[in-house]
Amino acid sequence: GRAPLPLAALSQVLRLERSRRTGIVFPLQKLERYLAPGTDTARFRLFQPGLAALQRAEALFRSDRGHPIDYVSSAVRMDHAPPPALPEVCFIGRSNVGKSSLIRALFSLAPEVEVRVSKTPGHTKKMNFFKVGKYFTLVDMPGYGYRAPQDFVEMVEAYLQERRNLKRTFLLVDGVVGLQKTDHIAVEMLEEFGIPYVMVLTKIDRASRGVLLKNVLEIQEFIKENTQGCFPQLFLVSSVEFSGVHLLRCFVAHVTGNLPTVEAS
Ligand code: GDP
């Protein structure tokens, strides 16, 4: 197995001094102090769980004998997908956006989980299903690209349209470059299907504060003006520094119905 990252567990994050801790657990809030006075930050704090909720969520992502977390199967077609028995979330995004790294970070407290990557050109792209105990399933959707083959587009569209147990789609966007043309195509598809989704800004450790602020404000404005199904709060993550990963675990637990109450922090 892999050694867990140094900040993979909340107990490790809680040892940091306050400002660093806020940056790791609530990276969006950390940006707030750099905004012009009067900026509306209501959308920065819609999902702001307290420590107890964060800890309950972490327990879900920590495997043990009575709570296995496993890769289940891969599918290239909907009729190969496992039965829709549990609440489900899926992760989509352009190739190279940091999706496998993020899923590995989410599952870092379950080191036996293998997040497979099939990047070889021409290699069949598959949906990978992971089961988190008896609580939910997480699906790693194949990365979409500029010239995605038609059968791939059909697979993703069929999944998003038909999957009855799909509770939320996580659309990953590169935090350094912001929304790209292919991301807009994904947004249009999700809007057309009318399914709930949320945007996750990746690799935030690589963006300067100025670039990050610009991208965050632009994307939040875009969400407000142009979308119906997108959660108004952005999630910011770095799989390297582990920022935003604890909060994202908590949001996944919440949307899959595994956190009955989320008390404010
Ligand atoms: P995927 O194609 O979406 O699965 O992307 P990967 O997870 O394989 O990441 C693509 C590249 O970005 C790799 O070189 C990763 O090491 C890098 N990367 C992914 N996440 C992060 C991050 O949070 N911070 C930084 N600095 N690099 C990242």
UniProtKB/TrEMBL annotation:
Its cofactor is Mg(2+). GO terms for molecular function: GTP binding; metal ion binding. The lineage of its organism: Eukaryota, Metazoa, Chordata, Craniata, Vertebrata. Keywords: GTP-binding, Magnesium, Metal-binding, Nucleotide-binding. The gene is Gtpbp8. This is GTP-binding protein 8. InterPro entries: EngB_GTPase, G_ENGB_dom, GTP-bd, GTP-bd_ribosome_bio_YsxC, P-loop_NTPase. It holds the Pfam family MMR_HSR1. It comes from Pomatostomus ruficeps (Chestnut-crowned babbler). The keyword Nucleus does not apply. Belongs to the TRAFAC class TrmE-Era-EngA-EngB-Septin-like GTPase superfamily. EngB GTPase family. GO terms for cellular component: mitochondrion. Residues 85-258 form the EngB-type G domain. The keyword Endoplasmic reticulum does not apply.
